[in-house]
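Consider the tokenized backbone below.
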């Protein structure tokens, strides 16, 4: 009887051990399938490292509402005209610069609107931005630059003479462009006079 009792105890112990091990394996398999595995296997570690590499800082400039306005009166065919220049920001975050692998800077396009006004009526208008100077600038500079300002020089023989400065935001790498526009009837016929590097 004692021998049978001992064998029964032994079989019961083996059965309990087998059952516990099976439940442990089933639980581990279900946990791994759930996607919330805490196991630091090669795949999980690889995914963590990949996500870390994708973290990027996106820096957006604050909107600016400053407007620089210039007006000048002139005569053409015995009529009085007013030339108006307005330089301002579009607040569009369209100038994108990738400064390094994890930092991208977004600044706003600056434009100058030119208007010819006669007796409070806008006869013609034209927008100046960096795109009209594309073929005159170094490609690498053009990609990151922005219009900085536009200054009136003179009106002579119905030619409007202007100077625009283009620069890379926050760096100050600047180029100066002198040019003229015909303003006899419409604002057209862009003519570049000089393109020069003016430093930082």
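A designed sequence for it:
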């Amino acid at each position: 009887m004692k021998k049978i009792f001992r064998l029964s105890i032994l079989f019961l112990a083996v059965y309990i051990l087998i059952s516990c091990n099976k439940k442990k394996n089933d639980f581990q398999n279900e946990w791994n399938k759930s996607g919330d595995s805490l196991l630091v296997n090669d795949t999980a570690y690889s995914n963590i490292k990949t996500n870390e590499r994708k973290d990027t800082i996106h820096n957006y400039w604050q909107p600016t509402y400053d407007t620089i306005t210039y007006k000048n009166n002139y005569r053409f065919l015995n009529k009085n005209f007013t030339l108006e220049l307005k330089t301002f920001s579009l607040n569009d975050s369209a100038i994108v610069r990738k400064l390094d692998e994890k930092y991208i800077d977004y600044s706003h396009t600056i434009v100058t609107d030119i208007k010819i006004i006669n007796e409070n009526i806008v006869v013609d208008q034209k927008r100046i931005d960096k795109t009209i100077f594309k073929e005159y600038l170094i490609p690498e500079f053009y990609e990151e630059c922005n219009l900085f300002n536009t200054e009136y020089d003179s009106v002579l023989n119905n030619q409007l003479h202007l100077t625009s400065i283009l620069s890379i935001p926050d760096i100050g790498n600047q180029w100066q462009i002198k040019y003229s526009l015909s303003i006899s009837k419409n604002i057209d016929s862009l003519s570049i006079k000089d393109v020069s590097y003016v430093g930082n």
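The longest strand covers residues 188-199.
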